[in-house]
Amino acid sequence: QVQLVESGGGLVQAGGSLRLSCAASGRTFNSYAMGWFRQAPGKEREFVAAITWSRGSTYYADSVKGRFTISRDNAKNTVYLQMNSLKPEDTAVYYCGEGRSITIATMGEISQYDYWGQGTQVTVSS
After folding, report:
1. 29 pLDDT band (50/70/90 cuts)?
2. How far is residue 5's CA from residue 63's CA, in Å, rounded to a whole number?
3. CB crowding 42-66: b at 16 or more within 10 Å, else e
4. In sequence order, what DSSP letters do the residues of 86-110 get, joined into one string?
5. Are 57 and 112 in contact (CB under 8 A)?
6. Calpha distance 3→20 (Å, rounded)
7. What are the two backbone dihedrals, phi and then psi, of residue 101, each rounded to the nearest 5 degrees?
8. DSSP letters of the chain?
9. CA 109 to chain CA mean position, Å
């Protein structure tokens, strides 16, 4: 089992920044990649960004490219999401997921992630 705990969410004004963290514990040695997804009220969960543990290869949704940066600290088993130039439409619950048999082609697919955190709320006011 793998446990994922997100933190760092909060309320911020448009144009501001937040940094989310996702700490992984448990049987993490088989983990291939970590991803961030978000879910706004009344909408489906959508892909935001992902990173591979070994090479640190990163992938982003078009809506966040140039504003968000995903990174990882292998020693701490922690993945971060630096969010800059936040917009009201970024308001959502942000979840981190851990994938083991994931591929580059499926990095953005929810079904490819094996474990999920409880989520952290991000609210961007206009």
Report:
1. confident
2. 25
3. eeebebbbbbbbeeeebbbbeebee
4. --GGG-EEEEEEEESS--GGGTT-G
5. no
6. 16
7. -110, 20
8. -EEEEEE--EEEETT--EEEEEEEEES-TT--EEEEEEE-TTS--EEEEEEETTT--EEE-TTTTTTEEEEEEGGGTEEEEEE-S--GGG-EEEEEEEESS--GGGTT-GGG--EE---EEEEEE-
9. 13
Amino acid identity at 113: Y
**CA dist 56 to 17, 18, 22, 23, 80, Å?**
22, 21, 15, 16, 12
Return phi, psi of residue 43, to 5°.
-120, 165
| pLDDT grade for 95, boundaries at 50, 70 and 90 | very high
